[in-house]
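Running low. Any example?
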Amino acid sequence: MNSDTKSLGDIIFSNAKFKVKIPKYQRPYAWGTEQIQEFWDDIVQDNPTYFLGPVIVNIEHRNGEDGFIEVVDGQQRLITSTILASVIRDTYTLFGKPDLALTIQGKFISLKDLDN
């Protein structure tokens, strides 16, 4: 087991061919207003970095196939981060900035449709 400090992008997109998988044993998304507000308050502070908290993933390599990243701990925070990135993407689209919207989509939400 390795323990490293990494950015959110490094955790999820360390290998473009890996898909992120939430195991069935994980509870459904359950954050309410209080947790989301605390998350928002933390990230809007005047701090160049934000400590997301521990995120534990299991990286599965498969011979000859694309692997996947299984989220063991940190699912609520990762999903909330993805929701926030989606809102930012949609806001850029709304204000006529499709290039910035595509950048957010590609870097933080989904690199591409890996099935095609």
